[in-house]
TrEMBL record:
E.C. no: 5.4.99.12
Entry annotated with the keyword Isomerase: yes
Superkingdom of the source species: Eukaryota
Residue span of region Disordered: 271-306
Keywords: Isomerase, tRNA processing
A Pfam family that the UniProt record links to this protein: PseudoU_synth_1
Residues at which substrate binds: Y102
Highest classification ranks of the organism: Eukaryota, Metazoa, Spiralia, Lophotrochozoa, Mollusca
Acidic residues composition-biased segments: 277-299
GO molecular function, one term: RNA binding
Family: Belongs to the tRNA pseudouridine synthase TruA family.
GO biological process, one term: tRNA pseudouridine synthesis
Active site residues of this protein: D36 (nucleophile)
Protein name: tRNA pseudouridine synthase
Amino acid sequence: MNHGLKILTIQEQIEIALKSLNPRNVVKSCISSRTDAGVHAFQNTMHCDLLRKNEDCEYDPQFLKNGMNYWLRKKKETIRITNVLRVNDDFHCRRQIKKRSYMYRVAVPFKEIAPQTGYSALTILEKNNAFIIWRPIDMRKFMSAAEAMVGTHDFTAFTTVKSLREKNESPMRTVSIEIKLGRTALKQHNPGLEFWEVYVHSRSFLFRQIRRMVGAMVQVAIDELTVDDIQQKLLKPCLKATDTKIKSLPACGLYLSNIYYDPKDLIYTPTAKTEPDDLNPADKDADDLNSTDEDEEVLDASSEKI
């Protein structure tokens, strides 16, 4: 969404949707995964602390979901909230991720396409939603290149040296890869094309790692690189400069597909209310002695309702 001259991020738009519900506190969120411009997302997660003006009760998750989606539809945003959960106060949507999955879509022709035709081979619905290769590829070599990158490796050659230095992060990553024959929205309007989906899984990724990994797979499939080249780049990466032999594919074909957590981390455990500090221990004992089973049941029912 363009507010004047500023284009808001998805995170900022969701924060505005939350503010429309008039919470008591200032809305500050944390998003689990940030993507480059042009990258799509089927799913993302974020967390925030949200206090209702009525201090005696909390927000209902379904109310939050409906309220945010109402605001987003009203503003004609292409964002939808699919689920809202109440989690423990120490939950962190980024630090507690177990695995991220990205998908890269590649359109492969049955016969060679003239590059000067641009993306006219794709329908308007597929424009900027997949990367099209101009000629047929050897899928066996494509998959062999993927197999060479599965496991724990030094992926320095599949990012930029500048990014590694700026972030001061390790280039070691453990990845798994799945390749599936995909679908298109209007198959009858994309004749002569196959859509392949490359799913790459890891806990975290380096800058442009997936786009360069799939780029290397394409290069092997069209005989610009060999599987041995890929293996050598993983074993002996150049540490002085970014490897320019590996091509980075456009952002349009990349999708954040899924984010995985330990199910236990998503279970809310209410904390027991503590006794006021000014309560005399003797008074507390007297209250315990005078309470009845009926009183305890009423207290339990009341606490469950809240």
